[in-house]
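Reopening closed ticket. The problem is back. First fold of the pair:
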Amino acid sequence: MKYDEITLQLKRIYDEPGPNDGFRVLVDRLWPRGVSKEEAHIDLWLGGIAPSPSLRKWFDHDPTRWDEFLDRYFAELDENPQAVTELFQKATASPVTLLYAAKDVRHNHAVALKMYLEGD
C-alpha cells in the first residue's frame, strides 16, 4: 500500500505545533499524558490505527523486538484497512504529520505506520 500523493511526517505530540505540520493526526490509542486537547492542535485522533493493546504490551518499545513488531503490526494494519482509509479520506492537504507520545523516536508504532503507508 503506497500513497504517493501525501507527504508524511512524524512528530512527538509534546513538540510545539509548527507551520509546516499540515494535517495533524494523533495515532496513539490512548490520549498522551500531560497534553490538553487545546495544546495538541490535532485535526484527527485515529486511535484505531494504533497497534492492538496486546501487541503494544508485547513490544514494550524493545528495539530487539522491532523487526517482529513490524511484521505483526503490518499484519494488523492489513486486517484493518478501514483505519488506513479513514486517515487518507480525512487528510486532504499535504503534508500529514503523524503524532505520537513515545520517547523512543526510532522504534515506535508511528515510525512503523509511516513505513507501512510509504510501502517500505
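Second fold of the pair, where the issue appears:
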Amino acid sequence: MIQVPLNQVKDDLSRYLRLAEKEDVIITRHGVPAGMLIGFENPEDWWEEMLLRDPRFQERVAQARSSLRNGEGISIEALREKHALTAPPAATDE
C-alpha cells in the first residue's frame, strides 16, 4: 500500500491506476488519508468489489453469521464435507 498526495494523483492518474492494479493507493489531502484508489488486474474484479459494498449483500452476510451463531444453518466446513468438496488452495504471496 502506498500513500500519494492528491495533487500527484491528479497530475498522473493513469500511472496511479496502473499502480493500483498491484496495490491499494491511499490518496492524501494535506497529509491526511482522504480516499483510496483500487485498481483491477482483471476487468471482472469490479463485480466482486461492488458486491462486497452492496448493503443488501452485507445484510445477508450478517444474517447468515447470526444464524450460525444461533446454531442454525450449516457451516462452510460442513457444507464441504456434505458435498465432498475440497477447500480452495490458500493464497500465497509471490
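Update: turned out to be a display glitch only; the data is intact. The two ends are 16 Å apart (CA to CA). The longest helix spans residues 55-69. Please close again.
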